[in-house]
């Protein structure tokens, strides 16, 4: 039995929609990314689509499944910094960060400090834009909470951090990778292989049946089918060499900005 993390947000739907709910080898635990990051780190689950940043914290212990990720090259549509003032004016002001994210929280810090030269104060809060705006001048939301907030057309600046990252680095950005503790390779290699195959099959099937997924997203959150088609057009769910180098660039910058205590070396399993 492999206990996997199930993420309920629409950006993850292409990986979960066709994954068997009932399977003798699978048990799933639903949570937001920071929940899975913590559960994988303390052994409550065996494998999950964790924040890329969390891989950077645990790279000595974890391996990454190849060909699976949540990435974009440019705009993402759901990693949004809502701000009462232009980004360049945030120096000394307060930014509220969602408590569901690790990658985007640190991406925000890199963009603000390293690329915009501004140093705000940070608060961590649940994803509620109105409450965040009572305590802060800007607010980071991710995933469905960001989409829902943007669909309300709030009266503020909205920055898409995938787009900001691309403009400054020319690189793709990887938000989530599927990771698991390397010790499982010696203990349960056959189970890992089967589950990896199930994940790849589920993703292929979803990408070949996107119309069905778009309908599901519309039922979940509203918006037009065109909106959802456009949203999923941004995403890349594999992890080819271009995406890997964007991921490396992000993790290297996290280290250089002292957000990580050492420079991660990315290790994949199975080896290609
Ligand atoms: C694209 C997204 O990426 C998510 C962002 C994450 C993070 O910031 O830690 C974690 C998992 C990803 O699925 C999103 O939430 O919109």
TrEMBL record:
<dbReference type="Pfam" id="PF02621">
    <property type="entry name" value="VitK2_biosynth"/>
</dbReference>
<keyword id="KW-0456">Lyase</keyword>
<dbReference type="GO" id="GO:0009234">
    <property type="term" value="P:menaquinone biosynthetic process"/>
</dbReference>
<comment type="function">
    <text>Catalyzes the dehydration of chorismate into 3-[(1-carboxyvinyl)oxy]benzoate, a step in the biosynthesis of menaquinone (MK, vitamin K2).</text>
</comment>
<dbReference type="InterPro" id="IPR030868">
    <property type="entry name" value="MqnA"/>
</dbReference>
<dbReference type="GO" id="GO:0016836">
    <property type="term" value="F:hydro-lyase activity"/>
</dbReference>
<comment type="pathway">
    <text>Quinol/quinone metabolism; menaquinone biosynthesis.</text>
</comment>
<protein>
    <recommendedName>
        <fullName>Chorismate dehydratase</fullName>
        <ecNumber>4.2.1.151</ecNumber>
    </recommendedName>
</protein>
<keyword id="KW-0474">Menaquinone biosynthesis</keyword>
<comment type="similarity">
    <text>Belongs to the MqnA/MqnD family. MqnA subfamily.</text>
</comment>
<dbReference type="InterPro" id="IPR003773">
    <property type="entry name" value="Menaquinone_biosynth"/>
</dbReference>
